[in-house]
Amino acid sequence: GWEKLRQGQNVASFDMKVTAPKIPMEVFWDKGQVFSEGWHSDLSLQMTEGKIKFSKGQGNLRLNLVEGRLEVQEQIGNLTIQTFKGQSLLDKNQGSLTVNNHSSIYRISEHQGPVELRNHSGSTTLSKIKGGAVVRNVSGVVSIKDFEGSFEGEFQKGALDAKIGEFQSFKVTSDEAAVT
């Protein structure tokens, strides 16, 4: 009975569907999956391990994921994301984007709005970005493709691979990073 549950064996699982008026929501979830489609208010989510998927919503999102997969698509509003380990796919979003990443792999595409990225050792691909970016990178790899706006980068180690298109301004400082 309880001893098996305490040891993590045969743990019950459940699905929870939330239907609520347009009010801000905070979710704290240890392990599992959280999906949202069409949520039209601010939302804050903290999760230890699992999968997060948001699509077609409006409002500010604040997402914290220690380990797992994160997907945000067609969101209108400011995004603040903190990740440690896993994969993150951000596609066709509008608003300011702030990412604090330790070692996750990011793909950010078709984003409209300013991007601020703090990256420790993960890899990030920015493609079809309109709105400029500020990148602070410790030892990860950052790749840029089809970019419109200004770019400012500070790289200690790691690498920057930029396919320069229509940058308004491009400024990179590097201690030991490879810049191509």
Task: Give a written overview of the molecule.
This protein has 180 residues and is mostly beta strands. 3% of the residues lie in helices and 61% in strands. The chain has one helix and 13 strands. It has one helix at 2-6; strands spanning 25-37, 43-55, 61-73, 79-91, 97-101, 105-109, 115-119, 123-130, 133-137, 141-155, 159-162, 166-174, 178-179. It is globular and about 55 Å long. The termini are far apart. The relative contact order is 0.09.
The gist of it:
This protein has one helix at residues 2-6, and strands spanning 25-37, 43-55, 61-73, 79-91, 97-101, 105-109, 115-119, 123-130, 133-137, 141-155, 159-162, 166-174, 178-179.
Spell out the key features of this protein.
180 residues; mainly beta; 13 strands
Based on CA atoms alone, the radius of gyration comes out at 18 Å
Q: Averaging pLDDT over every residue, what do you get?
A: 88
- SSE topology string: HEEEEEEEEEEEEE
Approximate strand percentage? over 45%
Discrete helix count = 1
Give the overall silhouette.
Answer: globular
How would you sum up the major sheet?
7 strands, parallel, barrel
Distance between the termini: 59 Å
The total of beta strands comes to: 13
Subunit organisation of the chains: single chain
Strand order of the largest sheet: 4-5-7-9-10-8-6
Helix content: under 10%
Helix/strand structural class: mainly beta
Which regions have little confidence, pLDDT < 50, spanning 5+ residues? none
